[in-house]
Amino acid sequence: MKCSLCDKEAVREIPYMKMYLCREHFIEWFDQRFIRDSKRYRLFENSKRVAVAVSGGKDSTTMLHLLSQASKQLNIEIVGLTIDLGIDNGTGYSRKSVETAVKNFEIAHVKYKVIDLGSDYNFTIDKAKRGTNRPACSVCGLSKRYILNAAAEEMDADTLATGHNLDDMAQFIFSGYVYGNLESLSRNSMVNPPERGYCVKKVKPLFFTPEGEILHYAILRGYPFIYDPCPYSSEFGSVSQERIGDMMKSMEAKMPGTMMNMVKTFEKQIRPALHDIYSRDEDVGRCKLCGRPTTKDREICSFCSIKNKLAAKQ
Q1: Residue 10 half-sphere exposure, CB side, CA atoms within 13 Å?
Q2: Helix boundaries (H) for 155-270
Q3: CA 267, chain centre distance (Å)
Q4: What are phi and psi of 3, to 5 degrees?
Q5: Rounded to the nearest 5°, which phi and psi values hold at 165?
Q6: Is the CB of residue 14 less than 8 Å from the CB of residue 20?
Q7: How far from the centroid of its chain's Cα atoms is residue 259's Cα?
Q8: What is the per-residue DSSP string for 240-277?
Q9: What is the mean pLDDT of each run of 10 residues along the chain (314 residues)?
Q10: What was the pLDDT predicted at 296?
């Protein structure tokens, strides 16, 4: 097929827009959409320093470079964050992830910080998998949220950007409907202001960007990223989420634009209604061990509880 904007051969179809684009026009369109969405949804309004969480995968890597390219237009400073989660399980997964993230920080000329879960907090996800009865993904998610918030504050960032894409959002929304996790859905937004004792705003710049387009863009741009899946992605809960994701992709293939419509409808109409129902002024407590925010009825936050449990077993 020919590009819809010129006579060159198209490399990418955008089915929900009935458009074909050549390499140059796809990259140009992708870049312009990123800036347009960032401004339209006021992602970086009042932001000065943005901490970009990079795992080494295609999504966060692409987001890093997009933000680095657009930083002057958006009037923001970029700093990088990556975590060595200590996931190995015979694959060297975390080592490769960190090496790739650092390589991209250096290519983008972005100052960065590497947080090592093992040396900085005395446990790894591998150890947590063996030493707790919680799924590895649960401990990993909790650890990343805790560490990224704390590290962003330490780097004097007022905003934290993560690489969640359209497919992630559609899967999360659908899962929320299926399993009735409406309170979690009420907090799932493209922009989340600081809340419950935290100081950093959280944004998802790729909220409306399909995963396939991100992958194609990263390849065309030549960004280094890891293809390897996490070795714990075969756990039961992860498999269930993956099946929901596959179902959403199948529906998208048959009816292009389904995921985009679902996520946009959710963000504009459903989430605000859920937020009105579930938002409440909560008294926030402080963990007596680390001083970070926690619910008022807990003396020790969930992260420190896991860390203490694992320390007791050593």
Answers
A1: 13
A2: 166-179, 182-186, 211-221, 236-254, 258-265
A3: 17
A4: -60, 140
A5: -105, 180
A6: yes
A7: 17
A8: HHHHHHHHHHHHHHHSTTHHHHHHHHIIIIIHHHHHHH
A9: 96 95 98 96 96 98 98 97 94 96 98 96 93 88 95 96 95 90 90 83 96 98 94 72 85 93 94 86 83 88 93 80
A10: 81
Q: Are 306 and 217 in contact (CB under 8 A)?
A: no
The CA–CA distances, whole Å, from 159 to 26, 42, 51, 141, 180 equal 29, 12, 6, 19, 30
Tokens (6 digits) for 36: 């347009």
Pairing verdict, β 159-161 and 49-53: parallel
Distance CA 96, CA 86 (A): 11
**Domains located in the chain, CATH noted:** 44-279 (3.40.50.620), 281-314 (no CATH)
- Dig out the tokens for 244 from the structure: 């929901």
